[in-house]
Structures are given as structure tokens and as C-alpha cells.
């Protein structure tokens, strides 16, 4: 039977999919999702890999404490289902937005003397390197016939080219086509580079993904409760 390994870039998945669905990682059933991805093919032990930046608790921040607790619970569920979790530290970076005509109601802000807004942003470091390394090592060690990649990070392309060209392994790209109904971020579309540089391409839409929202959360999103 064909062997597959599954590689999920959690940060990428969060921005491209979970934000559009209006949920967090803990509210999505990754184990059931992996069954869809495998599509009847064999997934060897620890052939499911989850790459994510670890949340750290910030003194005095209840929000960070809650986020850390949710991530710990998610990790416990994944480990119970024999996922291999690869982590990296989230780095903080100071960013700023210049108030100009690109900002909604910019004139009102300028009239109040606000010329820029500074904020702290968390960014993952090294996730793409870890995925690329595992792709290559897995190909060399013959851990898979097909690698299923759930990421649109084009930094992975050199590793993809190598395992296809040198080890004759197949790469299956999982892309998404999701409309941002809230208008807060751009809609998600498959990455053309991945479509051109992979052997198999699958594009999932909203109705493909909603069955993996955990039941309680799904009821809340539909305006229902058990009360």
C-alpha cells in the first residue's frame, strides 16, 4: 500500500484556514482531518507531523495564560493520536502602521495627533527549515511514497524539488479556496507555485472543512446551544 506522511504548518494553516472559519486550533479536529488527507492510504507511525510556534505565558497576561493552556491541551490530543509535534519559539517584533490615506478614517486620527500606531507582533522562526529537513530525511529513509504538504510557504520549494528529482518521491499539495466573509483579511486561494511544482494538487473549500469543526464549537457558530 502507498505510504504517505502528512506535514501541517500550523501557523500557515491558522492564517489561511482557521481565521476564515472563525475558530482556533483547539476547535479543529486534526485527527479526523488527517483521515481525509490520507484518503485510504497507509500513514506509518508518527507519519503525521504538526509544526507550530509555542505560546509562552507573559506575566500578568490572562490572555497568554489561556492561549498556553489551550495549546497544551491540543498537544496532548495530538500526542495521544501519535502525531509528532515540531515546535519553534515565537519571536516578538515591534511593527508600526503609518497613518495615511490607506487607513480607514485616517484624517480623523491625524486630527487627533495620531501619526503612527506601534504594536508587538509574534512571528514563528525556523518552521520552514524543520519541514524541509523532515521532507528530505523522510525521502532518504524511505518513510513515504507521497508527502502531503499542508502549507503554502514557498520557502519549501527547494526541498520539494530535491525529493522529487533525486528520490523520485511524490508531493501532494493541499491548497484552500476560502472567501473571507468578514472582510478582515484577504480570501485564501491556492498558491500557483505549489500547483506547478507538485505531483498532486487538492483544493479544499469551506464545505470540505466545516465537518472538522468540533461539535460544540459548530453549534455555537450556528447560533445554537445546549441550554
Any overview of this molecule?
The protein is α/β, with parallel strands linked by helices. The chain has a single domain, classed as Rossmann fold, CATH 3.40.50. Helices cover 38% and strands 25% of the residues. The chain is built from nine helices and seven strands; from the N terminus they run E-H-H-E-H-E-H-E-H-E-H-E-H-E-H-H. It has a seven-stranded mixed sheet with strand order 4-3-2-1-5-6-7, with helices on both faces. Helix 5 runs parallel beside helix 6. The longest helix has 19 residues. It is globular, with a radius of gyration of 20 Å. The model has no long low-confidence stretch (mean pLDDT 87).
Approximate helicity band: 25-40%
Could you tell me how far the N terminus lies from the C terminus, measured between alpha carbons in angstroms?
A: 47 Å
Structural class: alpha/beta
CATH class: Alpha Beta
Strand content: 25-35%
| Count of helical stretches | 9
Outline: globular
Strand order in the sheet with the most strands: 4-3-2-1-5-6-7
Oligomer: single chain
* CATH overall fold name: Rossmann fold
- What is the N-to-C order of secondary-structure elements (H for helix, E for strand)? EHHEHEHEHEHEHEHH
Work out the number of β strands: 7
Write a compact overview of the structure shown:
The protein has helices at about 10-20, 30-40, 60-80, 105-110, 125-140, 155-165, 190-195, 205-210, 215-220, and strands at about 5-10, 50-55, 85-100, 115-125, 145-150, 170-175, 200-205. It is α/β, with parallel strands linked by helices and about 230 residues long.
What structural keywords apply?
227 residues, 38% helix, Rossmann fold, 25% strand, single chain, seven-stranded mixed sheet, 7 strands, alpha/beta
Amino acid at each position: 500500500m502507498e505510504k504517505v506522511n502528512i506535514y501541517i504548518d500550523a501557523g500557515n494553516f491558522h492564517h489561511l484556514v482557521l481565521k476564515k472559519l472563525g475558530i482556533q486550533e483547539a476547535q479543529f479536529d486534526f485527527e479526523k482531518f488527517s483521515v481525509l488527507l490520507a484518503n485510504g492510504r497507509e500513514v506509518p507511525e508518527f507519519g503525521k507531523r504538526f509544526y507550530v510556534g509555542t505560546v509562552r505565558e507573559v506575566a500578568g497576561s490572562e490572555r497568554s495564560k489561556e492561549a498556553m493552556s489551550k495549546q497544551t491541551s491540543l498537544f496532548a490530543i495530538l500526542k495521544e493520536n501519535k502525531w509528532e509535534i515540531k515546535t519553534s519559539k515565537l519571536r516578538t517584533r515591534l511593527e508600526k502602521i503609518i497613518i495615511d490615506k490607506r487607513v480607514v478614517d485616517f484624517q480623523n486620527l491625524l486630527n487627533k495627533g495620531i501619526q503612527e500606531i506601534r504594536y508587538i507582533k509574534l512571528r514563528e522562526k525556523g518552521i520552514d527549515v524543520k519541514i524541509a529537513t523532515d521532507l528530505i530525511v523522510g525521502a532518504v529513509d524511505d518513510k513515504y511514497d507521497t508527502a502531503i504538504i499542508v502549507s503554502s510557504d514557498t520557502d519549501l520549494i527547494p526541498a520539494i524539488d530535491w525529493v522529487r528529482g533525486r528520490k523520485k518521491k511524490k508531493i501532494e499539495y493541499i491548497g484552500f479556496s476560502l472567501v473571507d466573509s468578514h472582510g478582515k483579511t484577504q480570501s485564501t486561494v491556492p498558491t500557483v507555485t505549489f500547483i506547478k511544482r507538485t505531483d498532486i494538487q487538492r483544493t479544499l473549500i469551506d464545505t470540505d472543512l466545516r465537518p472538522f469543526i468540533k461539535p460544540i464549537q459548530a453549534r455555537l457558530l450556528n447560533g445554537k446551544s445546549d441550554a
